[in-house]
UniProtKB/TrEMBL annotation:
Species for this entry: Anopheles darlingi (Mosquito)
Superkingdom field: Eukaryota
Keywords: Membrane, Transmembrane, Transmembrane helix
Segments crossing the lipid bilayer: 21-41
Protein name: Receptor ligand binding region domain-containing protein
Length: 212
């Protein structure tokens, strides 16, 4: 026979109250402090150049349509490893994955905006500007995948929009791309390299290998 605890005149929920009240008091206090902080502190400005935010920069427009615009800048020539025809299927897979795992809300459409920079510095720079102009208003740049084209795009990215625009690439092997990027003064402030290697790492690897 299962022994039941003696029925208490106070319900278990009410009995636990004194201890809970302390927790609640703390929780409410924290909320008040955070709330006051939000109201009274000036908003943090992450940008390197204060600009007026354009209406088109919003992911969700006032009419309720939401769209994430991803600017892809890389060569169309397949003799370059990371070229548009080779990368596009990977991006489609990535989108499938994002949808399946619901990483971004289902109501947000994804628009891919591709540009062929032919691995040229000047073309890549102009395409980054086209991709972030009032007509396109991209939210993030993928590429460029050639280091020479990547450099100018990653340099200007911190001055595009009020908050800069993130530049994500698997390239960026040369030494300068490995420098710190914490502050606006850092040349490649908005650059995010997803690749594992760089020339510097490879050089250290070779030196270590030869030493052994
Ligand atoms: C692609 O690049 C290769 C090597 O640089 C070049 O020989 C070829 O003409 C290019 N193809 C096109 C269509 O530009």
């Amino acid at each position: 026979m299962v022994r039941r605890p003696a029925a208490s005149p106070v319900s278990p929920v009410l009995q636990r109250r004194p201890k809970d009240a302390g927790t609640w008091f703390l929780f409410v206090n924290v909320l008040i402090v955070v709330g006051l902080g939000i109201v009274m502190l000036p908003p943090v400005d992450a940008g390197c150049r204060p600009l007026v935010r354009k209406e088109c920069e919003k992911i969700c427009r006032t009419n309720g349509n939401c769209e994430l615009r991803i600017v892809v800048i890389m060569p169309a020539n397949t003799s370059v490893e990371a070229s548009l025809p080779r990368v596009r299927p990977v991006l489609e897979k990535a989108e499938e994955h994002i949808r399946r795992r619901a990483i971004i809300p289902a109501k947000v459409a994804i628009r891919w905006i591709s540009y062929d920079d032919r691995c040229e510095q000047a073309r890549a720079t102009v395409m980054a500007m086209d991709g972030t102009g009032s007509e396109t208003c991209g939210h993030v740049i993928l590429g460029p995948t050639c280091d020479f084209a990547l450099a100018p795009v990653a340099r200007i990215a911190r001055y595009i929009y009020n908050d800069g625009i993130p530049v994500l690439t698997g390239a960026g092997y040369t030494f300068d791309f490995e420098e710190p990027k914490t502050f606006c003064e850092n040349e490649f402030h908005m650059l995010i390299r997803t690749g594992l290697v760089s020339f510097k790492r490879m050089a250290y690897f070779m030196i270590d290998l030869i030493r052994q």
